[in-house]
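Render this sequence as a predicted structure.
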Amino acid sequence: MTTIRQPKSAASQPRTQSPSSASSPQTKGASQGNAASTSLKPQGKQASSTNALASTSKLQKDAFAASASASSKLPPVSLQARSASSPAPAGSPQGVAALGAAAPQPEYRYNVDVLNLRSVPSIAGNEPVAQIPPNSKLEVTPDANGATRQNDFVHVSWNDNGTQRNGWVYEPFTLSEPRAEPAPTAPTDPTSPTPPAGEYVRTTDNVRLRSVPTTVGNTPLGTVPQGTRLEVTPDASGETRKDGFVHVSWNDNGAQREGWVSEQYTRASSAPIPGAKSEEEALEDASGLYINQFDAEKQVGGDARNANCGPTSVVVALRAQGLEVPEIPGQPHNGTDGADIQAARFHMYNGVDDTRDGVELRDPSDPSAGYQYAKMSGDGNENSSYTYFNEVDNAVSAAGGHSETIGADSDSVAQALKDGKSVVLSGTFVEDGKEKTDTWTRGGGAQEHVVAVTGITDDGNFIVCDPAYPDRRPIVATPEQLDAFMRGNEGAIAVYR
């Protein structure tokens, strides 16, 4: 074990102390030559926000789909062009109806939520020209080149309170017919009115579902797991709340169940997120992004005892955006995850702190010869040194991306993900000298640690890529678990193109 080198300027920064290996737990305060650590506390350096995406939910307005694969070098994301015929421009011979023939019927689309209108069929490199309210009637019209559809976008004309606006909208978030509004249900009991459509609660503990609003004289219908979102629904008599219980509908693995749960074990929750993927789909996407920090180091000659949770999480967050960290000058890239992680560490610290950048000059007498990997095993290896918040932006910028500090709480992380961004988080598994019990299982002795969050499910849970997780796979974390992880070493950076 070696003593971690810490620059004086970083002494006050909180850090993440990650595992040295999957089988070598570390304790805070011990000599940490192998403890992964990244601080996510801003230290005055302003994160890049150039060309920031719109702050409202792109998951509800625009497409931002990263096509994840198990390849260690993912290509940039691309939206596949839609195959569709485009009507000829007005005034062209094809656009003139033959004598006696029926005139072509106009085509309309209706947006299911607030939707961005754009000047080009892409979300990259342009700001929305307007936001279209939900359920607006949009006529499909050709653009100046006669195209009506391109890259999953459709060109439309929209009457904005008397002003006609033309532009592109993301077609998967539109319908061919207007969405029917649910008819209101009149309450039968003024003391317990029917809730407005879309009232939801989330369980804060495992809670029993019952046929009547009491614990006396009845057998539970089942147990609802902690973190489950439930829709508040009226019972047969129209009541939604009674004697400290709330009547709910629960999707139990495809079986719809209704009953009463104790309201003290619930909290208010949001409705399902339109456009978000199911838990199964989101985990499948993330499986192509996930990297284990210990296995990856072996790919480049390391001993699998490292503090690379920060660089690993940065690589995962960048891949989720279709971005790659450039290779290290002079060091051949062997096509592995490990080589990408070393490149991330290099770009985070090269020119900032040469005791943490993971390289050395190939020829000290000739700097133009470039670099080679520094020692990766035993005492004094640079992969066992902590990485800090300020340097995350260096690697993101090198990859051609942007980053910004966001609130270190589950609501802010959820909004960033809805906006099409990925997030790098700092947290800790230890509190008051004891391991936390309200977050996910730590791996390899991780204490202060860094993870990447790459997705959000339609149920409002998070897809977390913890590079030291024992099972070496992405996991699902509830908002409560995410907040618990960040508690005591809070930090969050959103990463985007």
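Summary. Helices lie at 58-61, 279-287, 293-298, 309-320, 337-349, 392-398, 410-418, 479-486. The chain has eight helices and 26 strands.
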